[in-house]
Amino acid sequence: MVPVPLSYMAIMIREIAHTEQAVKELLKGTGIAASDLLDPEGQITLAQQLNLFKKAAEQHPGIALALGLKANILTHGPLGQAILSSATFRDALLVLGKYAKTRNPIVQYELKETAKCAVLEFTQMVDLKDARILYTEGSMATVKSFLKYFLGENFKEITFYFSFLAPKHAELYQDALECPSVFSWSKDQVTFPLDYLDLPLSLIHI
Q1: What is the pLDDT of residues 48-92, one digit of tens each?
Q2: The CA-based dihedral angle spanning residues 60, 39, 102, 4, taken in that order and rounded to the nearest 10 degrees
């Protein structure tokens, strides 16, 4: 089984389950104990994560988007620290592409540069079946948080592309991502102006 960090699910649970009983109900059948949520280095299997994700999404459409927005750069442990140490935005995205698998092996990121724009492409390394959209939403919202954190006032001229049909809760995408969303695209990706890549990173946010 592929191990994944429990910390992301702990953030999600804190967001939607506000009583001990609610937490108990959400964790029922997942094999995850409430006490496990207190371990910042805890891990669960991908199957457990997807089970919990889908249970939460049944009652809270768009929960994956909310989770991605809640996960700040330091939520990602050593990966986040490495990104913060980058000199430019390009360097930060290259670090993400190279080392994201050390934090979560499910999603791979690749930075590409075309004549017109920069492209951050997403590839899911495991067939997630009916959880594919949930995982993509979470990944996209996480990258949105990352982009907005570093770009600040330059957070514009960004477009998110999704390789699936618009879901029933597609109206939530605009509020969550604050950028245009295009569905039924050939790949899951984010595009933005090339000149953003040379922007120096600032640590004044920390």
Answers
A1: 988 888 888 888 999 999 988 987 787 788 888 899 899 999 999
A2: -40
Q: Name residues whose C-beta falls within 8 Å of residue 42's C-beta, 6 or more positions apart in sequence.
A: 5, 6, 7, 10, 36
Distance of alpha carbon 146 from alpha carbon 177, whole angstroms: 11
Residue 138 has a CB neighbour count (10 Å cut-off) of 23
For 72, 96, 110, the CA distances from 183, given in Å and listed in that order, are: 26, 24, 20
Tokens representing 118?
A: 């920069």
Going from the C-alpha of 169 to that of each of 40, 158, 178, the distances in angstroms are 31, 21, 15
- CA pair distance 155, 158, nearest whole angstrom: 7
Which residue has 């249970």 as its token pair? 55
Q: How does pLDDT run across 146-180, given as a tens digit for each residue?
A: 898 888 888 899 999 999 999 999 999 999 999 99
Q: Please report which helix (H) or strand (E) contains residue 69, including its range.
A: helix 63-70
Q: Which of 68, 44, 57, 43 is nearest to 131 (CA)?
A: 57
pTM of the model: 0.87
5 to each of 36, 79, 105, 147, 173, how far by Cα in Å?
Answer: 11, 13, 10, 22, 25
Hey, where are the domains in the chain? Answer: 3-60, 87-198
